[in-house]
Each structure stands twice: as structure tokens, then as C-alpha cells.
Amino acid sequence: MPELPEVENVKIGLIDLGSIGQAFAKIEFLRAGLRTPFPKKAAKTLEGQSVRAIHRRAKYLLFETEEFYLLSHLGMTGSWRSDEGERLKHDHVIMHFRSGLRLVFHDPRRFGVLDIFKKSELTKNKWLKNLGAEPLEETFTGEYIFSKSRKVTASIKSFLMDQRRIVGVGNIYASEALFCAKIKPTRQAGKITRDEAGLLAGCVREILLRAIKAGGSTIRDYRNSNGDEGSFQTQFMVYDRAGEPCVRCGTKLKSKTIVGRNTFWCPQCQR
DNA sequence: CTCCGATCCTGATGGC
DNA sequence: TGCCATCAGGATCGGA
Fold first, then answer.
1. Cα–Cα nearest to A54, from A28, A5, A16
2. Which residue is nearest to nucleotide C10 (CA to C1')?
3. How do residues A102-141 score in pLDDT, each as one tens digit?
4. Which of A12, A111, A178, A270 is most buried per CB count within 10 Å?
5. CB of A164 within 7 Å of some strand B atom
6. What is the pLDDT of residues A201-213, one digit of tens each?
7. Is the minimum distance from the CB of A261 to strand B below 7 Å?
8. Annotated active-site residue in A102, A187, A210, A261
9. pLDDT, tens digit (0-9, with 9 covering 90-100), for A141-193
10. Which value, to the nearest 10 degrees, does the dihedral of the CA atoms of residues A91, A95, A98, A101 take?
């Protein structure tokens, strides 16, 4: 479900719900874990700590307290919502705050992750330590893409989705950014020119920013924490549009599986 | 080391 | 209507 724009909107939604300043009463776990076991012991030490800020790093949400970070990854189908009382199938975690606010983590496919660690361990944390550049930060440039890709024989599509190189770009935005940059997704990453890398960096940033503004993309079940759907899916140029005419040139859009993920492009515009 | 397929899990969808 | 295969916004693991 969630790539960078969706996670960014979940973060905004959680802040809108009034999470900042809230003191933890307890964290209730409704099963043993998701992709990994829940940090039940650490959750006890979190009690009494207050949420100072909520950050996004890559596709991870970070709830910052005085001494800890609580890390949440949404996997494919994870979502946070304010608990209005009804218990849904696939609700797995409930954060109880002293004010009475409760946040519920819901995740049918259970690919999500929850972790808690000391603030001093931020750079050592197993989920965060190998992450690449944030595409919305200054360090992410055409030169960064160019230099990091020189020895890569895999496709530019898989390069874009590799979180050790660039974070936050998933299957939708990889196809959209490559269309924007007029680069065929099957191209070998190491053979992208310096000019193309520059174009691609700008496209990744532009697509992600536009998607954030649109509230993310809702294809099936994505909702931000206010229950709102995103609308960027109405602006897709290629994703999920195989067989339809290219908006730029009218050529029939193609699709095929690249490293296990369905990929969409215009065979005429993208080279 | 790099690359890619298999894998985790549930639910929606489409073909027969 | 029912059954089965396929696919889905992610990321890790292990074999080649």
C-alpha cells in the first residue's frame, strides 16, 4: 500500500489527530507480532513517555518521545486510525494514551513492523541503518543517482526501488518517475547518462511532491489516519494503464514484470 | 558482492 | 454460485 507520499500523509493525519504531546498509558498487543515479534518489554518502558514529534524516514514512521523512538512500518496494508470503539478484524495493536485517545494499527496482510528503541540507537537500528538518500532532501541529486548506479547491471526500475540507494519510491512511483524522465524501466541502471540521471532526480522529486499534495494514491484500501483517501491515482500517467493510449503520444502503453513487480511504460516516449 | 525468485499473509477479482 | 488461480502499494532471505 504505502510508498513515501502515503506514509507522509499518514504522519500528517496522526499529527492532525492530536498525537503530539500525548502521554502513553499502555500499548496493547492483540497478537504476538507481525513480520517480526512485537517489542512487548520495551513497550512497558514507553509508559509515561510523551510523543514529542512524529517523523517519517523512508517508509517508516517514527514516534519520538523523551527517550525512545517507536518505529512503525505499514507493509502493504497497514494503517493507523483513531479508535472509535469498534474492533475490526486485523486490528493488531492499540496505543492507549492518558488523555483517552487510542490509536489502532490495522494490517490484514501482516507485513507491517513495530519496533521501539532508545534515541541513542537511531543510526544503529536494524530497520534504519542501511537506508539510502531521502529523495526530498538536498543530498538527492542527479549526480547522486549517476554515481551510485555506475556499476549496477540491474534495471533502473529496480535501482529506484532499492531502499539502500533511494528511499520511499515503490512500485507506483518508480513507473511514474521513469515515464516523467522518458527512461525505459528495463534500461540497465549503470548505462543511464548523466543528463538522464539529472532528469530522473527531478522527476522523482516532482512526482513524490505532487503525490503528497494529492494525499497519496488510493488503489484499493489506502486511507490516511483521518480515514481520507488519496487522489493521486487520477493523475497516473502509466501505472495500471497497460493497453491504454499514452497521454503524450497516443502509443499503447505496455506492462511487464520486472523483478517480480508489474511495471508500466510507453514504448515510444521512454528510451 | 550483485541479482532475482521465492516467501511471508489475507482478500479481491476474474475465468471456468 | 463455487472453486481455483492470480495478483496486490513491501522487504527479506538464500541460491545462483
1. A16
2. A75
3. 999 999 999 999 999 999 999 999 999 999 999 999 999 9
4. A178
5. no
6. 999 999 999 999 9
7. no
8. A261
9. 999 999 999 999 999 999 999 999 999 999 999 999 999 999 999 999 999 99
10. -50
